[in-house]
Amino acid sequence: MKLATLKDGTRDGRLIVVKRDNSAYALATNVALTLQAALDDWDAKEPQLRALAQQLEAGAVQSRPLDVKALHAPLPRAYEWVDGSAYINHVLLVRKARNAEPPATLRTDPLVYQGGSGDFLAPTQDIPLRDEAWGLDFESEVCVVLGDTPMGTKAEDADKHIKLVMIANDVSLRNLIPEELAKGFGFFQSKPATAFGPFALTPDELGAAWKDGRVHLRMRSTLNGQLVGDADAGPEMHFSFRDLIQHLTRTRAFTAGTLLGSGTVSNEDRSRGISCLAERRMIETIDEGKPKTAFMKPGDTIEIEMLDGEGHSLFGRISQTVVKAP
Amino acid sequence: MKLATLKDGTRDGRLIVVKRDNSAYALATNVALTLQAALDDWDAKEPQLRALAQQLEAGAVQSRPLDVKALHAPLPRAYEWVDGSAYINHVLLVRKARNAEPPATLRTDPLVYQGGSGDFLAPTQDIPLRDEAWGLDFESEVCVVLGDTPMGTKAEDADKHIKLVMIANDVSLRNLIPEELAKGFGFFQSKPATAFGPFALTPDELGAAWKDGRVHLRMRSTLNGQLVGDADAGPEMHFSFRDLIQHLTRTRAFTAGTLLGSGTVSNEDRSRGISCLAERRMIETIDEGKPKTAFMKPGDTIEIEMLDGEGHSLFGRISQTVVKAP
Fold it and tell me: Which parts of the sequence belong to the Fumarylacetoacetase-like C-terminal domain (chains A, B) (predicted)?
């Protein structure tokens, strides 16, 4: 089942079910007005939404052509956005880039941060940037939407709390990170609004690509029309979403609709390219002594999507342009 | 105007207006079902809620006796919980306690962290603790509820975005903080669910005590029946809520219902006592070479409230007991 949120002038938009080929949708507001409302009562709503999705595939319900520009993020605002950094190759490169040591517990204790979740960007929404010197970067990520997840959840029990899978652009302001982290309280100002891909899929839609709490698909990042990354999101995700959920719930519970991100998808094999510019800059520094790639500036565009084996865009395409903000 | 949220078995409870003396309430669900719904449409809802509050004071509307145990946190879940650390004395003591240097920008650049906001504790809800060794501490704080607050808001324009004032117990797990901060991604596991006081007040309810973006009232913390802190929340709040809002909005916007905390209220004058145990332990270390006060353990209770000049509990009382959790 593939869900999305149609802009309708309200804060949370309207829930729609999307055809598997992304061509059309049916309003799901008879089942639940919003995606958050569906998640709040998932056990009751999921079967009804699945029935509607089947009707849509069969042409047995009124449908309309889908325009990605008419979509919000699946959750335009959420109660929590917790983002991991589960790809070891990314952690090593980015820490090296800012002359910071990787944590001693790199491979045993997951890295996660609490992100802002009140005001997300839509899949095709411009990225506002007040100061080019802040070093705007994209980060192509996979994420999952949790149902109610109790404190003390174990990794082996985590799958049942994963309701949906999405993709994200975890926009970062690289040049603000060092001064923010030096204060010891996390990334705050260096993580502006995050954008999410158009469609939220139930894990079963991924078939065999959803395995061991990981998404075994390729994450394609296209910068200014040029494919810069085609990384496998599966095997090198050192901590799976199961592991991350166990980590998250050590000291508290999470409510339905919590978003949990993988961190930047990253492969050791350099031929797979990059899912953020910080990695390319670090590789340039290693190879040539200094970075030559600039961070993003107004006018630059980033497109992010995941294709299945037949080349279909499973989650739809994030397509954003940086614009100067006042 | 004094607002609160009645438990009714739903996730967000039901909005009520509370009498100024805390004795009775009237259901506000004819105006807005929930506090978040009221905040989402504040310009329209605020005058209607104020009218209801006036009727309640005048005995012109049906009211019921108020039992604080029947209340949720005013927002049982929120879209963001951003907590500052605006009392310099607290920063200095707590950093000293964990042998960490205060940041070089201590007095010029506010400290804020992004907290979890999906699952808050009610004012009288037990604090679940899975492991006593984690070092559970209370933190008595003031906080404000924001309306929609755009990116780039200046301190001098910030007041209009502050819709409500509340108090909070920003529960902390002191012994998990060093290892979490060492990883560089913030407090994550060391900040379990936060509790909030029963009542959310419009700033005008504070009269002259609401001044320069600060709450000039005393924050009383009572541990196991003994008053341990009676600190003035006003003058030593180095960064006002106005300053914090300017800091927050540097790189992104915030949605209505965002919660912004002051950090632990703290005074240089030791006779005012403490608003968290970490401070007392540091003072003991300075005076006697080592801390002798233990962190909280199952069975311990903490009560937090703010009194006005006549001794009335403005925001109601947070009253929580630590319980062993599985």
Answer: 81-323
